[in-house]
Specification:
heterodimer; A: 144 residues; alpha/beta; Rossmann fold; 5 helices; 5 strands; B: 571 residues; alpha+beta; Beta-Lactamase; Heat Shock Protein 90; 5-stranded antiparallel sheet; 5-stranded mixed sheet; 14 helices; 16 strands; 53% helix; rod-shaped
């Protein structure tokens, strides 16, 4: 979906770089981050991130912890877990903590695009509901 | 590999040790106790027998003494009751003699009156001894001057053994002697009547050691031997004395006691073996029992030690198998961990590779390259990179899932999945050995309750064995899974060299292997056997040399939870 802002979080630099190029070619806006703390920092800066693609195994702050922090600070942002580790258990744990879905590395770019699309759709719907609720609240204050 | 030879030496050594210890421990108290009790018994019994004999001899001595003094009293009575004149009258004497004989039987042989010169003035008896002269006779000489006198046994004028009882009678102011002869035979039989046991007999000796009664028919020993009983003691000594003597190879017991006022000695003689016959037979019996018991102990020790050691050997074997199993499982676990580490390390570079290939593919879409001659080739090469990357991913995934299953806890597992996993791992080797792997896995195969890692061990082992059998010749490895009644059955069949009939019965034995030293521990199949048995299943084998081998594994279906498993959507 054009205009979707995606943050790529992975400690493997070449992977992030190539992925950025491919996804940018497919009209996504990519913000790269190479560690958990960096991802959180960048999320503070760029409030328009829709989807975060998060690698499970990272040094310093691993995927699950980063996920927790993201859910705390930016609950509306959808997270897709990327596991090259075939540790389905970790991915499932992530999903229990609120991740949208998980993918196994190496993944086909079309599959990734589809998942990003779904995540973005969900976020949009959610934001829409918030706006509607707000409007209702305002109109209800205006009198019966 | 620990060979059986060294261990059998060890076990033989152990057997011998146990046997020796058991024997020593059993015999020591037995001997001690037996010896102690035996000695006590021997001593007290011996003392008892001796005391008994002494008492017996004492009684007999009293009997005999009594007899003598009674006879003496008889004669004294006669002498004091009647006058010299009456006693000189032979007819009167005859009457008194008949009375004596009537009263006391043939004990009194004859009676007579002897004057101070030693001339027998009156005589009644069977011999013609009237007017016999005894002045030179020993008895006369001894009797003169004594109020009473009992002589030793002697032949005398009549030439037959007898002894005299003499009583002083004062006639015409001189001392005459009234004498009576006692029948030796009767007296002898009185003494001889003292018979106890088979060899016990009594006789009387005088102060000079001469026999007074008929000596025992037994040892023809010279007078010197018997004189020891006399010389060795002061004759005033009262009470009986016991001596044990070994003469001419025989052990004899002598009980002696003085009698007739110390002038004679009553000697009782018996073979020691006769006197103590009871003791000796008891001792013999005890010895026999001891020997039989001893043999029993030795035999028991042998049997017991053998049995104990074979138990120990069996336990050792089981322990060794268990150790091997643990080691194998440990190896598997560390391989698993290694695999997990490697897989992860490989996945990342592979992912990057595939991404770059994808990027190249994307770039190839751009217009400016469309004219290029090599476009198709670029596309094909890039595709190949992606394909191979995918293959890497599959391999590492298989490795990782294999590594996950090293937990020995039993849970419900689907054998088909495990089979496919192990087949995947063995594919490379199979291809290298020119072996084709075929699987006929029943769909909807029920689950079984087992430890995944143990099942992996079994399957891996069987497959490796099959591949080994077909290493040189190649062939087909076919794995079938099916249901048979309450069991899930797995057949692993190869078309390899086969197993000869004589080995077939032993392949599940521990340490049995036909592989070269260092190439196999011989424990693989025995561990498999143990694992399957533990699951409640069975493992069996068919084989024909040159045709191939098939292993059959039968495992009971997982029960109760079947419905639950279906509900969870497993399988």
């Amino acid at each position: 979906m054009a205009g979707t802002v995606v943050m790529l979080v992975d400690d493997e630099v070449p992977f992030v770089e190539t992925m950025t190029k491919r996804l940018t070619k497919r009209s996504l806006t990519i913000i790269p981050a190479y560690s958990g703390p960096e991802a959180l920092e960048k999320l503070q800066e760029h409030k328009d991130v829709d989807v975060v693609i998060l690698d499970v195994k990272m040094p310093v702050m691993d995927g699950i912890e980063t996920l927790r922090e993201i859910r705390k600070a930016h609950p509306l942002v959808e997270v897709i877990m990327l596991t090259g580790h075939a540790t389905v258990e970790t991915a499932i744990e992530g999903m229990k903590l609120g991740a949208f879905d998980y993918l196994m590395k190496p993944c086909e770019v079309e599959v990734l695009m589809a998942k990003v699309g779904e995540a973005k759709a969900k976020k949009s719907k959610h934001e829409q509901k918030i706006i509607e609720a707000r409007m209702r609240e305002i109109t209800s204050r205006m009198g019966d | 590999m620990k060979g059986p030879n060294s261990s059998s030496d060890y076990y033989r050594y152990l057997t011998r040790n146990i046997m020796v210890i058991v024997i020593v421990v059993s015999f020591a108290p037995l001997i001690l106790f037996g010896g102690l009790v035996g000695y006590q018994f021997h001593t007290s019994y011996h003392d008892k027998v001796v005391a008994h004999l002494k008492e017996l001899v004492e009684r007999h001595k009293q009997n005999i003494d009594g007899f003598l003094y009674e006879r003496l009293a008889n004669v004294q009575m006669l002498v004091s009751a009647y006058t010299c004149a009456e006693l000189t009258d032979e007819a009167f004497l005859q009457e008194k003699f008949s009375m004596l004989r009537a009263e006391y039987g043939g004990i009194f042989v004859d009676i007579g009156l002897v004057d101070e010169q030693g001339v027998q003035v009156a005589y009644v008896g069977p011999f013609s001894l009237r007017r016999a002269v005894y002045s030179e006779a020993e008895w006369f000489k001894a009797a003169v001057g004594k109020p009473v006198y009992i002589s030793d046994v002697f032949l005398g004028l009549r030439g037959m053994p007898h002894f005299i009882i003499a009583v002083k009678k004062t006639c015409k102011d001189t001392e005459w002697i009234f004498r009576a002869t006692i029948d030796f035979v009767a007296f002898n039989s009185l003494v001889e009547g003292t018979r106890i046991g088979k060899t016990g007999s009594a006789f009387i000796l005088n102060k000079a050691g001469e026999f007074q009664t008929r000596p025992p028919s037994a040892p023809a020993l010279d007078k010197g031997f018997y004189s020891r009983f006399v010389s060795g003691r002061r004759l005033e000594e009262r009470g009986s004395k016991v001596e044990e003597v070994t003469e001419a190879g025989r052990k004899l017991i002598y009980v002696t006691t003085p009698m007739k006022n110390g002038e004679w000695i009553l000697v009782y003689q018996q073979d020691a073996s006769d006197a103590f016959s009871d003791l000796y037979s008891a001792r013999r019996l005890a010895l026999v029992i001891f020997i039989i018991g001893g043999l029993g102990i030795v035999f028991m020790a042998l049997v017991l030690s053998r049995r104990v050691v074979s138990r120990i050997a069996r336990a050792d074997l089981e322990k060794e198998m268990m150790n091997e199993q643990v080691i194998e499982a440990g190896k598997l676990a560390s391989v698993g961990e290694l695999a997990a580490g490697i897989a992860h390390e490989i996945n990342n570079p592979v992912a990057i590779m595939v991404e770059e290939a994808g990027w190249i593919e994307d770039l190839l879409e751009e217009e400016d390259l469309r004219g290029s001659r090599n476009l198709e080739e670029f596309r094909r090469a890039v595709n190949q990179i992606k394909t191979q990357g995918k293959r890497c991913k599959e391999i590492t995934h298989k490795l990782l899932s294999f590594a996950r299953k090293t937990d020995p806890k039993a849970k419900e597992i689907q054998i088909n999945d495990l089979v496919e996993e192990i087949v995947g791992l063995s594919e490379q080797r199979a291809r290298f050995s020119n072996v084709k792997i075929k699987t006929n896995l029943a769909p909807d195969l029920p689950t079984v309750l087992a430890s995944p890692s143990e099942m992996q061990q079994v399957l891996l082992n069987l497959m490796n064995n099959a591949l080994d059998a077909m290493e040189k010749t190649g062939g087909t490895l076919e794995i079938t899974s099916r249901v048979e009644g309450d069991n899930v059955v797995l057949d692993v069949a190869d078309t390899g060299v086969g197993i000869p009939k004589q080995n077939l019965a032993r392949i599940f034995d521990p340490f049995f292997t036909t592989k070269a030293v260092g190439k196999g521990t011989g424990l693989g199949l025995s561990i498999c056997y143990g694992i399957i048995k533990k699951m409640g299943g069975e493992i069996s084998v068919n084989s024909a040399v040159g045709l191939g081998t098939t292993f059959h594994i039968r495992i009971p279906k997982a029960r109760e939870r079947e419905g639950h498993a279906k509900a969870q959507g497993k399988g």
